[in-house]
Amino acid sequence: MANLPTKASFLHFLLGFFLTLSGFGFIQEAQSLGINYGQVGNNLPQPQKVLELLRSLKLNKARIYDTNPQILTAFANSNVDLIVTVENDMLATLSDPSQALQWVQTRIKPFFPTTKITEIAVGNEVYTGEGTALLTQLVPAMVSIHAALARLGLDRSIKVSTPNNLAVLEESYPPSAGRFRPEVAAIMPQFLRFLAASRAPFWINAYPYFAYEDSPDKIRIDYVLLNPNPGMVDPNTGLHYDNMLYAQVDAVIFAMARLGFGGIEVRVSETGWPSRGDVNEVGATFHNAAVYNRNILRRQQRNEGTPLRPNAGLEIYVFALFNEDMKPGPTSERNYGLFQPDGTMAYNVGLSQLLTR
């Protein structure tokens, strides 16, 4: 695409494009918008450069997939709300309260509150539909970490939750039919009880792209891209949905309500669209990625809620900040980034056009 900056330096790009836009206050109005900052690459910029990029974008919420001390140090005094992550292979260890206390004392306390850690994600997609081995370790680890935070006087400032794969739902269509899979039936009530007691959100990784990739002949592309379209009406509630992402979120809310937990906030910990893919990865294009993320930004600017909770803004973390060249799997996995590692745009999200509308 000829209009993409391919050789511009990192700083030139920041100063020449997004600092110009910052004066319009577009992105800073989207207070519920965050970004996932993955690090599975061998050519990514240093954390301080990443912070400069976030500042230029007026993004003040980010999520990382570990407790990298370099990032925690670089983000000190930045006023960026940061979610850190306990790796899945640490869940068994941190189920032990003494180990959890030591972890919080060494991984969290030295950086807080100078670095604005707001949440600890305990594991990531512990249930993926392919196995249940980690499920029994999840809630004990969350309880132990929360207890450690409470002992150190940090529990009111730092929430504890976990990002869930959409596979935790057995049914998501229509949204009012939302229910959890039998495989998670044993853990889900105690998990939701913990969230309700600690007033922590239920995080969901929601990717309409995957549904479209699986059934491109059955799903309208505009419905998954959040473009104008006829949408669908839930026959049980009469609620109208003009996009799949909001339908997926409301399906989670209905699933929780079925178990007696109707008041827990749902947030989107990951959503995005790949700009490239293998031949069989239908829909993975620069155009679709730009449209999807542009529409997410537009709706976040309006502080939209879902049809079920229209007056409650939906917090969304876009995946991801950078293309990560060391991620395994199909080509799409390495091409979810809004930016290349050198700081240039992977594709044009279209912010300049939005400002004129």
TrEMBL record:
Record bears the keyword Signal: yes
EC number(s) from the headed UniProt entry: 3.2.1.39
Keywords: Glycosidase, Hydrolase, Signal
Protein name (database record): glucan endo-1,3-beta-D-glucosidase
GO molecular function annotations of the record: glucan endo-1,3-beta-D-glucosidase activity
Recorded catalytic activity of this chain's protein: Hydrolysis of (1->3)-beta-D-glucosidic linkages in (1->3)-beta-D-glucans
Pfam families: Glyco_hydro_17
Organism of this sequence: Salvia splendens
Family: Belongs to the glycosyl hydrolase 17 family.
GO terms, biological process: carbohydrate metabolic process
Signal peptide: 1-32
InterPro entries assigned: GH (IPR017853), Glyco_hydro_17 (IPR000490), Glyco_hydro_17_plant (IPR044965)
Top EC category: hydrolase
